[in-house]
Specification:
about 120 residues
Length: about 120
């Protein structure tokens, strides 16, 4: 079964940066899957933040993070990153990686991001 692991979360001050990583179990090439980053803040629904296509590398972002966040693949290391710059307190949430094919989707356990002074 495909296992997804996120890492890179933590506590950062407003205006700071973090880079989240999404990795997969051995033998699974993330390059063959559409990857999405989602987040869920306390008391709120899970929302999509960024995604990247497995077909043509097309990327899309939610309006709230556009120009601040960047999703990117590192196929050599089988990792998908979410670079988050100019973080705001409103970005505080648990961030989840979603790995999706035409027939399946898998979630990681999430990594906490806290933006606070």
């Amino acid at each position: 079964q495909l296992q997804i692991v996120e890492s890179g979360g933590g506590l950062v001050q407003p205006g700071g940066s973090l880079r989240l990583s999404c990795g997969a179990s051995t033998g699974v090439a993330l390059a063959n899957y559409a990857i999405g980053w989602f987040r869920q803040a306390p008391g709120k629904a899970r929302e999509g933040v960024a995604c990247i296509s497995e077909v043509d590398g097309f990327k899309s972002y939610s309006d709230s993070v556009k120009s601040r966040f960047t999703i990117a693949r590192d196929n050599a290391n089988n990792i998908v990153y979410l670079q988050m710059n100019n973080l705001e307190p409103e970005d505080t949430a648990v961030y989840y990686c979603n790995v999706r094919s035409l027939s399946t989707q898998n979630w990681g356990q999430g990594t906490q991001v806290t933006v606070s002074s």
